[in-house]
Design brief:
mainly alpha, MetI-like fold, 2 domains, 13 helices
Length: 332
């Protein structure tokens, strides 16, 4: 296992290098970050030359890539290059945005995973029961609804709940504009009240969508495993249904959900763009959208590289989990 992990980590290095080169090429194709600045008013050739020298855009593509990659590895992720934001460190802003997204995504993914696995297993065990039909209907409804639609419905419901709480003399609870940038204030009880009000709607939104995905995969995988020869042989030998389900079938049925969840969580760390936009969260989604609109190349590159690292890391975790769940898989 140790050798396999080291080998995968070493393989990830050239993979990240190739990914960084492709990302740099795509970001370079976004356009000239100084293009709008040059059109705002007449600029002298000296001003334009100085601006391009400051941003490094006067150098050839390969030279700029090598310079950026070397700085990135040493922890210098560049600065904003557009004149209105010039000099702002990308790393500090990106870490701040990542922290906001991580707080939102981690809780939602954990809840969705446990809920989706539990409902999927129970639906497979009680196939064609009322519970199975109900869970299937809810899952397909959530799976087919656009994320922004679910978010807007929840936001409207949160506003109505706030209005009702206000009508009975209670404080407004739900926050629909994201957590305050300066943090939560007041005593412990007040902070818990504010914290829960800020997190409840975006968390429910992400949980509903991810739960639908996980429960469908888990149910299908569990049904296939329950019909496998080794499970039926165990039951024929007198093994109880509960033992055959959880001892023999459940672990192997988790392998597909490990694959799906690892890819999904890695991508989610890149920003729940729609959820963050609807609920006013200043996370990775808002960070990259603003960077693309302003044509901030180093901000977009930082976002892409952080996302790539997390996707590769969670894929490695998934491969290790395969061997833990199924002893037949060897990672030598």
């Amino acid at each position: 296992m140790f050798r396999y992990t080291i080998r995968r980590l070493l393989i990830s290095i050239p993979l990240l290098i190739v990914a960084s080169f492709l990302c740099f090429g795509l970001v370079n194709a976004m356009g000239d970050p100084l293009g709008e600045w040059k059109l705002q008013k007449p600029r002298t050739p000296a001003e334009i030359a100085a601006a391009y020298e400051r941003t490094g855009y006067n150098k050839p593509f390969v030279e700029r890539y090598v310079s950026w990659a070397g700085d990135f590895v040493t922890g210098d992720w560049g600065e904003s290059v557009t004149p209105g934001n010039a000099g702002r460190p990308v790393k500090e802003e990106l870490i701040k945005a990542f922290g906001v997204t991580a707080r939102l995504v981690l809780g939602a993914e954990i809840i969705a995973l446990f809920l989706g696995i539990a409902v999927g297993v129970l639906g497979a065990v009680r196939q064609y029961s009322i519970f199975d039909y109900t869970a299937t209907g809810i899952s397909f409804t959530m799976f087919s609804m656009p994320l922004f639609c679910v978010a807007l419905i929840l936001k409207a419901g949160g506003i109505q709940l706030n209005n009702w709480l206000e009508s009975i003399g209670a404080d407004r609870w739900i926050t629909t504009a994201g957590p305050p940038g300066e943090g939560f204030s007041g005593g412990f009880g007040e902070q818990v009240f504010q914290y829960s009000g800020a997190f409840v709607l975006p968390t429910i939104c992400l949980v509903l969508i991810q739960f639908a995905l996980y429960s469908r995969f888990q149910r299908a995988s569990m049904l296939e495993t329950l019909n496998a020869d080794y499970v039926r042989t165990a039951q024929a030998k007198g093994v109880s249904q509960a033992r055959s389900i959880f001892r023999h079938a459940f672990r192997n049925a988790l392998i597909p959900i490990v694959t799906v969840s690892s890819l999904n969580i890695g991508a989610q760390f890149g920003g729940a763009v729609i959820t963050e936009t609807v609920f006013g969260w200043s996370g990775m989604g808002k960070f990259v959208i603003e960077a693309i609109v302003k044509i901030e190349p180093y901000q977009v590159l930082g976002f892409m590289m952080v996302t790539a690292v997390f996707i590769i890391a969670f894929n490695l975790i998934a491969d290790i989990m395969y061997a833990v769940l199924d002893p037949r898989i060897r990672l030598d």
